[in-house]
Amino acid sequence: MPVPDVMFCAQQIHVPPELPDIMKQFTKAAIRTQPRDVLQWSYAYFYALSNGEPLPVKDRLERPVATQKNDTGLTPGLLKILHKQLSEKETVEISDLQRKWKNLCLPMEQLRNLLRLGNFAEGVEWMKFFALACSALGGSLLSSMKHACEILTNDPEGGAARIPYDTFAYIYSYLASLDEEITEESTEKFLKALKEQLRIWLPKEKIKQQ
Q: Which among 31, 34, 146, 153 has the fewest CB atoms less than 10 Å away?
């Protein structure tokens, strides 16, 4: 027996009152993030939304990085998303990192290269991986540290991009240790000089804040 045609009217269709705002925020997030695979990213977005996790959304629309290779998908904005999602744990499971990486539509080969470079066998020490990712963005140690500071800072955009000294020293020391041309002595000398500068500068900064 054929199924009878069913007529629907506006009064019969229930639209949750929060749906329009959810879709509006989703659309704005997609435009701001510009995912390569909209379907994959959309799944990650609503999964995170339903579980109260940090959303895979950039803070702002990014311009292409001038020093970035054409075949490199990672950007400062995407790395900042990963940091928000994964930095709560000091050590991250590789499967979790792979899932978050895939949800941002990033090339898996790049992830494998970073994992090999860091010699991560089981768990991934997040700040070490973060440092390696910054080096993939920057190329040089100086530009890598610039990216790290800009991603980690709580300063407003365009500000000084300050981060805690211990965090800076950890990232700098780790990346320097991977460069055969940088000796441990030169690293210690640089960080010691930087710390002395901070001791001179910080009292002046406190006076300004008062």
A: 31
